[in-house]
Amino acid sequence: MPVSLVIQTSFLGDTVLTTPLIARLAERGPVDVVVTPAAAGLLANNPSIRELVVYDKRGRDRGVGGFARVARRLRSRRYDAAYLAQGSLRSGALALAAGVRRRVGFATSTGRVLYTTRVAVAPGSHHVVKLVRLGGDDPPRGALQPRLFPGHAEKASVATLLGDEARPLVALAPGSVWATKRWPHYAELAALLAADARIAIVGGSDDAPLAREIVTRVPGAIDATGRLSLLGSAELIRRAAVVVTNDSAPLHLASATGTPTVAIFGPTVPAFGFGPLAPRSAIVGQELLACRPCSAHGPQRCPLGHWRCMRLTSPAVVAAAVRGFLPVPIPS
């Protein structure tokens, strides 16, 4: 029975999208996962994972000493194969230093010189498809759905936060690490939807100023930013009738929970491979702008200074997409 190692030390959304690969590998044998401290909570309770190995590459494990310490820990596990879901040179070097003889990664990755097996993937494929192909197969659509596993504590926290109001819930996720990915009209959207649904804002503590703008416009909105763990945010999104999100981690949380999704794309495009995977979704954006896409991630400033890709997407258009996922009111 092979013992596999998955190395994923990239962004939170990438960690979510790696869960189908982990599940496929777990069908063959035990799977350990190297992950960052920030992303470790996302993989808690995952039944496909034998052990999470936290690699704090910017903190206590930084530098050569920390790298060697983590490599020694991995070497003692005697893995049959390592799957480089994060394709940096450092990740490849970690698998090599851990003594893993079979190292599988993308043929286009920076660390490919250290791989023993290089997997070519078709341009335009969803990133989940690419990741699963690292495992050596091309599974049916159902096996490509990311999965997260909120526990009792997360469910209880969300239940307390939301209470028992019967109106449908719309979750808004206004944040992103990349400034140009943040659609600027969430407060106006919340005002348009307030008569139809409850509003909850999800995100980290860094997103609190964005949440305050929404709550100022809609005082009844629930500000959950910085109040829930990552799995808690996933649980809140699971309970929502629909989530509105930028091209950022909450989009992938919604994919994992199957929540209907309205995804707003600006400087990036779904063709990069990071579009929604929820069974029902809508993508909103300025498709005819010649300057899109302008960056693989979304720059901190618009290169042309106008930011039309986000500014021109109106709250009314997004609200119409949201209402398409809300339950139709029953006449009194």
What does this structure look like?
The strands form two sheets. Strands 3-2-1-4-5-6 form a six-stranded parallel beta sheet. The protein is globular, with a radius of gyration of 20 Å. Helix content is 33%, strand content 15%. Helix 10 (230-239) crosses helix 11. The longest helix is centred in the N-terminal third of the chain and has 13 residues, at 63-75. It has 332 residues and is of the alpha/beta class. It has helices spanning 12-17, 19-26, 37-40, 63-75, 89-97, 127-134, 152-162, 186-193, 208-217, 230-239, 249-257, 308-311, 315-323, and strands at 4-8, 31-35, 51-54, 81-84, 102-106, 117-119, 169-173, 198-201, 222-223, 242-246, 261-264, 281-284. It has two domains: 4-144, Glycogen Phosphorylase B (Rossmann fold, 3-Layer(aba) Sandwich); 153-323, Glycogen Phosphorylase B (Rossmann fold, 3-Layer(aba) Sandwich). The protein is built from 13 helices and twelve strands.
